Amino acid sequence: MTGRDHGGNIDMAVARFGAGDWIDLSTGINRRPWPVQSLPDHVWHSLPTAEAVRHLTQIAARWFGCHPERVLPVAGASAAIQMLPRLFPAGRAGVIWPSYNEHAASLGAAGWTVSEVDAIDAMAGADLAVVVNPNNPDGRQWSPARLYDLAAKVGHLIVDESFADPRPDLSLAPQMPDNAVILRSFGKFWGLAGLRLGFVIAQPDILARLTEAAGPWAVNGPAMAIGALAMADTVWADDATVYHSEAGLRLDHLAMRGGWVQAGGTHLFRLYDTPNAETAQNMLACHHIWSRRFPYSDRWLRLGIPGNAEEWQRVAAAFRSLSEDG
């Protein structure tokens, strides 16, 4: 089973390569975040109300294309990943591999027997199946019809749609089977990971058990207020989707000029096959650009999308140096 390493470990970059103005491209978090507005004082001074929960839930349900009674705000998708394995009796679980490693790790910690497989058909007969769609880090994707078919062959199906906001066509939420649970992240697409906000989409009985497991006031008031404002801003969301559609191709072009091969990705990150991932990461780090490599591959390197002209200039300069050295 894979380890629990993660991107976002900028402290490690600083310790190895020195302090400075770092560009953290080691995650898939949008570097052009939704512009946070000022909030009324009561949001900071009071516990979140039932009306605040209802308001956020309705806006989120409209974004996901499902009924509000199936939506539960949580303290980040990662919180749900830790809680969900303990809601069901432990048994045999299948998890797509390679993928986000917290799923297999949290299932194993909860007593599940975990099989990491490279195709969703191999999970047929499992008590629980986990699919990240689109997948992290290689960007593989499965249609809702394929996942609906898989749900009929397993006890429960968890679909992690943390990177699906720019791809509503991939979401199972509008027509999800009763035994499915969908996870959605807020921080990645809207670029506000520090809020620790996410959503679980499931049958009401599962949401009730999650609510009990999470305890009261699991999501703070400012996160709810900002989340509701951001998710209602569809003009910003459309612009963000278009930017990342074009920016991903731009990053691919720079990487291929440096001799790397495009190996997958999503709107929010790209995956490259490099001659040597450690060397490639170190090269970028010399320019104070932090990237993500993986313990199971000595060639794969993942990069998030630069967010502004100055970041693009620095990334382009790093790839020029790579071309010159090569």
Can you walk me through this structure?
The chain has 326 residues and is an alpha/beta fold. The chain has 12 helices and 13 strands. The chain has helices at residues 10-17, 41-45, 50-64, 77-83, 102-109, 144-151, 187-190, 204-214, 221-232, 234-257, 277-285, 309-325, and strands spanning 23-24, 71-74, 92-96, 113-117, 128-132, 156-160, 180-185, 198-201, 261-265, 269-273, 289-290, 292-294, 297-304. The strands form 3 sheets. It has a 7-stranded mixed β-sheet with strand order 2-8-7-6-5-3-4, with helices on both faces. Strands 9-10-13-12 form a 4-stranded antiparallel β-sheet, with helices on one face. Helix 4 (77-83) runs parallel beside helix 5. The longest helix is centred in the C-terminal third of the chain and has 24 residues, at 234-257. The protein is globular. The mean pLDDT is 95. InterPro entries: Aminotransferase_I/II_large, CobD, NHTrfase_class1_PyrdxlP-BS, PyrdxlP-dep_Trfase, PyrdxlP-dep_Trfase_major, PyrdxlP-dep_Trfase_small. Residues 43-318 form the Aminotransferase class I/classII large domain. Pathway: Cofactor biosynthesis; adenosylcobalamin biosynthesis.
